[in-house]
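User: Can you help me understand a structure? I only have the sequence.
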Amino acid sequence: MNIRLDMGPVAPYFSRLLAIGGEFHKNIDDWVHLKNEEDFENIYRVPHDQRYKVEEVYATGRDIANSMGYALLETNTNFSRYPTLTSIIEYFQDTWVYDDYPSPIPAEAERVCVQNGIDLWSVRHMLKLFRKQEELLGAVRNALEILKRSDLYKEENGEVILKPESSIIISGVNGSAININSDGATAHASTAYERPAVFDDLSRLIREHSPDTETQAKLLKNAEELAAGHKEGRFGQAYKDFMQNVANHVSVIAPVISGLSSLL
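Assistant: Let's start by predicting it. Here is the structure, written out as tokens:
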């Protein structure tokens, strides 16, 4: 599966989220099969006042598979909901990932079945699938915590990332030969600011694909503010503001998002 270009800096862990989303999505059919094609119809043998504890394994397990499968896979395509890495991480704070359900569900179902002498093949496999999904939720949680420590996440949130710089002093120039670490002359160089070509590509995309002139004017203004932020050395915050301002029109600028994020 190809991942969205702006997630390139965190590709290993973003790819993990997508792979786990695929597993959850496959589980949807397994839940339906276990409920409708096996012996789950014999659940009536569990006393009525306790039956809901067993049925909850199916109800919650399928809901987890359904919601997590679609949500994780959509992070790669739904730019309106997930315009940035930060928005992805924040979305999952209030989901099944962080134990938004009563954790004893499997244990309670097992206890009820044992107490009443019920041993259904479907329930045993539902319990196994439920616990497998709990492990997947843990893997998602782990990946999100790693992504929160990434430079991309920090830069989106205005943190200045100090990257180590290497320098080479060239001295002792004799004719055409250059001797490093020798005493004598030292070379100095300075460069003027050069506007990255990606900003011109961004403006072109906005002019060609904006839905109307009013939107085009707003997006072009946002683009120029982003370019100014880069020139003035405050690109991290400018990029964060830009992505928030254009969240409803990310499809217009999608081809250059990777190029923009590479400037961070």
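Now, to help you interpret it: The longest helix spans residues 121-148. The beta strands are 170-174, 177-180. Let me know which part you'd like to focus on.
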